[in-house]
Specification:
The structure holds two protein chains of two kinds. In chain A, about 0% of the residues lie in helices and about 55% in strands. Chain A is mostly beta strands. Chain B is built from no helices and eleven strands. In chain B, the strands form two sheets. In chain B, strands 2, 4, 5, 6, 9, 10 and 11 form a seven-stranded mixed sheet that branches. In chain B, strands 1-3-8-7 form a four-stranded antiparallel sheet, with no helix packed on it.
């Protein structure tokens, strides 16, 4: 299987919460990342969490890290149509600090 | 404060040709990494430059080479282009190549390469 896995699509209604999940096989002792990519654009760093933390909150974003289950999630509260994009989980592994990216989750927000 | 800038934004080449892509890192950053993003995929790491040397390399053939200049800007060169090299090429910069908060990578908008 893939080193970093994400579901490919998520559809939510405007105003609801979105939860994007990511599982990985291995992580280095460093930061794990969430990036956002809008159509035709580069990657925007959304947030990150250090590997010894369980949770990080940043305005509408909440990151949860379960090291035992090797599971990382991103919750977006009060999802807006402008949040429609592809979200990438990125996890460094094997003692390297270079992140391995998942295939991305396409978030579609319906009015 | 300028972010990571890449040029050109789009490029069309034919099989067998050579291409050079350019990247200027975010102000204050000294480390540059290059990634290839094929359609529908996540970015794949090509290599990373620090102090004008290639420090780490992903699983890419020798046709992919790079350079870093004293001002920390970088070039990615691809020789003998194949149809499969068509992708978005992303440059990322960070404060340092070691594992710390300073290693957080910030990406540019990318160069879209089409090989015909």
């Amino acid at each position: 299987g893939e080193d970093v896995e994400q579901s490919l699509f998520l559809s939510v209604r405007e105003g609801d919460s979105s939860v994007i999940n990511c599982t990985y096989t291995d992580s280095s002792s460093t930061y794990l990342y969430w990036y956002k990519q809008e159509p035709g654009a580069g990657l925007q760093l959304l947030t990150y969490i250090f590997s010894n933390m369980d949770m990080k909150q940043d305005q509408r974003l909440t990151v949860l890290l379960n090291k035992k289950d090797k599971h990382l999630s991103l919750r977006i509260a009060d999802t807006q149509t402008g949040d429609s994009a592809i979200y990438f989980c990125a996890v460094p592994s094997g003692g390297s600090y270079i992140p391995t990216f998942g295939r991305g989750t396409s978030l579609i927000v319906h009015p | 404060d300028a972010g990571v800038t890449q040029s050109p934004t789009h490029l069309i080449k034919t099989r067998g040709q050579q291409v050079t892509l350019r990247c200027s890192p975010k102000s204050g950053h000294d480390t540059v990494s290059w990634y290839q993003q094929a359609l529908g995929q996540g970015p794949q790491f090509i290599f990373q430059y620090y102090e004008e040397e290639e420090r780490q390399r992903g699983n890419f053939p020798d046709r992919f080479s790079g350079h870093q200049f004293p001002n920390y800007s970088s070039e990615l060169n691809v020789n003998a282009l194949l149809l499969g090299d068509s992708a978005l090429y992303l440059c990322a910069s960070s404060l340092t190549w070691t594992g710390s908060a300073k290693n957080i990578q910030y990406f540019g908008a990318g160069t879209r390469l089409s090989v015909l």
